[in-house]
Amino acid sequence: MKRIVLTADDYGLHPEVSRLIVGLLVDGLISSTTMIVSSPHARDAVSQYLASGADPARLRLHFNLTSPVEGPPWYPLATEHASLVGPDGAFHAHEPELEAKAESSEVIAELQAQFDWMETRGLKPAGIDVHRHIVYGLFGRGFLPEVLVFCSRRHLPFRLPKDPTLQFGHDFTTRHAAQLDAAVDAADTLQVPLPTVIASLPPGADREFTSYEEVLDRYLAILDAVPDDGVSEVFLHPIPSAQFGPQTHVWEARLLADPRFREALADFEVRPSWR
């Protein structure tokens, strides 16, 4: 039987988004979620999670170093952060600018600060993953070695696919093969559990998909493509309405309760972690 983690990303993005996601978790429609603690709504999200009775072991840190492209800026939690911010003291909104300027020591200091923020509020992260694929090095310098050491010292799994093709395509695999292979080898040496593959809608999906049925078909194809070995992850970004993001994310919320999607999941062992 194939094994996957079914995750809703971006818990803490907004109180209404958090309410939707924790409801999906309590109802068993997802098996994990990931929290953005640099969001201005993070404190509210902690209260919602603790009040819901949801299992703390199903919550991971969604490590973030960027501000939203649209809307109010977000700010770092660490005191040493000069390389992570612009003149206004907020995170950069675009990944290339971040990766061109970020210093390794400040990236890890911010990761530690975000981890501590959750832990001191009674929500010790069950793992680490990254918002908008930061630290992978897709847009410039990456910080995978440093982040893997951080995870190893805390015995935490990390969202980095052993095989990136399903999520990023063959072009990524070709361009970043050596970097990825080194990171996967390092994770093995450091005993950091990784998912076999990860998969979600691609960037720009709101322009590619024009109907709910297209989104459903894509996720059914993703489930079909999940390999038999190891534990993989399918992650979505469900939101209650287009007020909070693209229509494709509204359709992802609908998808999770769709009998056709649930029927496809019956062939999987759905787990809270790829550990």
TrEMBL record:
GO terms for molecular function: hydrolase activity. Keywords: Carbohydrate metabolism, Hydrolase, Magnesium, Metal-binding. The keyword Transcription does not apply. It comes from the Bacteria. InterPro entries: Glyco_hydro/deAcase_b/a-brl (IPR011330), YdjC-like (IPR006879). Its cofactor is Mg(2+). PANTHER family: CARBOHYDRATE DEACETYLASE, YDJC DEACETYLASE FAMILY MEMBER. This is Glycoside hydrolase/deacetylase ChbG (UPF0249 family). It comes from Brooklawnia cerclae.
